[in-house]
Specification:
14% strand, globular, 13 strands, three-stranded antiparallel sheet, TIM Barrel, ten-stranded mixed sheet, 2 domains, 33% helix
Length: 453
């Protein structure tokens, strides 16, 4: 009798667990009250190799620290900033050693080292600091108007944690030896006033994504004042708060003043018929813990309509069907967070080792279908420069040999108002070169040689 073949993916419920932070030598005496304190988490963030050594003790070989220092000095586009909450989700089920720490998926994108990178093609030839040209589309400092009915409001340029793959690496975070960051010049109150002035003058904009940086770094009184200002604009119907800190520093969103303030904002939004949502950024199921679930549930209890997740596809982190489905079931079933998008990692410098080709993203979207509830099945999108988000199956043309896909658009951005050809152009996106057939890789080497000749 033949055995059943089984399913390509087998669902097994995974209940959330807060990893034991005392397995790290530097946190052996940290109490639960300290761990749950947002202030303690912020004060004890890991910002450099010395502080990582203090937390890890003798768990890691010297070779890892050398690898990390090399990356920070020569390749990193983001400075190091890790809350203890986030470091604690690396190798969560045992005391880390060098091998397991290297292999950890969260470590791979939050604490990149030089040997992670593809030194033959660390960057795609078409990679740029502002890969989505958001700064080009500023209509006021920090206010990007790319889509006809939506704007992105960057309130500040800092986060509680810095992701190695940050798409806004030209603005967000501290300068690194390889990247001298842009700076916001206006005082926050003047920047916020400029945003509201633009929105009042453009009633066609109904949706505001409030981001940065991370809104968890905006002092609550300032953030509440800004949100109440948005709610005073009658044409604004959707407000989305973007915060990776819901996962990286859930303690922030559990602080009484933040909870009470968000409740005031949520009640005002409900009364005015405005949809208020929170968007977070979880890339691996190991990041989900009971504290994260508690923070998400608290947001819903105070009146936020939805808590949604926007992850990023990255090789070595989550770019398999099993990894994505494990994460989505954890988000939707255990943490109360709706899987929403997975973006293909953008074409920023030194990110080739993370990026996946379009065909791989298409295969992942195909393989995820049918397992999750339809409303909780995330869309995988390619954020095409000058175009915006496109489902990965919407590609107009695709040259697999050279890794060049072509995409169309159905609206004009704020810098194309007078461009008669904006809606008929084809816009290119590029696969990582190391994923191409040898003929394609050889072609790109010739292009590179010709460009530098």
């Amino acid at each position: 009798m033949t055995q059943p073949a089984g399913q390509p993916y087998e669902y097994r419920r995974r209940t959330l667990v807060e990893p034991d932070w005392t397995r790290f030598p530097g946190w052996r005496d940290v109490t639960e009250a300290q761990w749950q304190s947002a202030q303690w988490q912020r004060v004890n963030c890991v910002k450099n190799v010395k502080q990582l050594r203090a937390a890890m003790g003798d768990l890691l070989d010297e070779s890892f620290y050398t690898d990390l220092e090399t990356d920070q000095q020569r390749l990193a586009t983001m400075s190091m900033l890790l809350p203890p909450q986030m470091l604690n989700t690396m190798v969560p089920d045992r005391t880390p050693d060098t091998e397991s720490f290297y292999a950890d998926p969260i470590r791979r994108y939050m604490l990149p080292v030089a040997t992670d990178r593809h030194l033959d093609w660390p960057s795609h030839p078409h990679a740029t600091r502002d890969s989505l040209h958001e700064h080009d589309m500023w209509v006021a400092e920090g206010l990007t108007h790319r889509y006809p009915t939506k704007v992105l409001a960057e309130l500040l340029s800092t986060c509680p944690q810095y992701c190695g793959h940050c798409t806004r690496m030209d603005l967000v975070g501290n300068s690194t030896p390889t990247v001298d960051k842009l700076k916001l010049s206006l005082k926050p109150v003047d920047r916020y006033d400029a945003h509201l002035t633009y929105l009042k003058a453009h009633p066609g904009v109904r949706d505001v994504v409030v981001s940065g940086g991370d809104v968890a770094n905006v002092p609550w009184k300032q953030l509440e004042a800004y949100l109440m200002g948005l709610l005073s604009v009658p044409t604004v119907r959707d407000i989305r708060l973007a915060t990776k800190a819901l996962m990286g520093l859930p303690q922030h969103w559990l602080q009484p003043d933040v909870v009470e303030g968000l409740h005031r904002v949520a009640i005002t939004a409900q009364r005015r018929g405005v949809n208020l949502a929170v968007h977070t950024h979880v890339n691996h199921v190991n990041s989900l813990t009971p504290l994260v679930a508690k923070a998400a549930q608290t947001l819903l209890e105070v009146g936020v309509r939805d808590v949604r997740n926007q992850g990023v596809l990255m090789r070595g982190v989550n770019a398999t069907t099993a990894d994505l489905l494990d994460l989505c079931f954890g988000l939707q079933g255990e943490a109360g967070i709706l899987p929403y998008y997975f973006y293909m990692c953008d074409m920023i410098p030194n990110a080739e080792h993370w990026r996946v080709p379009v065909w791989h993203a298409q295969q992942l979207q195909h393989d995820m279908m049918g397992y999750l509830p339809g409303y909780a099945t995330p869309r995988i999108v390619c954020d095409v420069p000058f175009v915006g988000k496109r489902w990965v199956h919407m590609v107009a043309e695709y040259d697999r040999e050279h890794g060049i896909s072509y995409w169309t658009k159905n609206y004009r951005t704020s810098i194309e108002q007078n461009d008669d050809e904006a809606l008929s152009k084809l816009h290119a996106y590029y696969d990582p070169i190391d994923t191409l057939p040898q003929t394609g890789q050889d072609w790109w080497r010739k292009q590179e040689a010709a460009a530098t000749a």
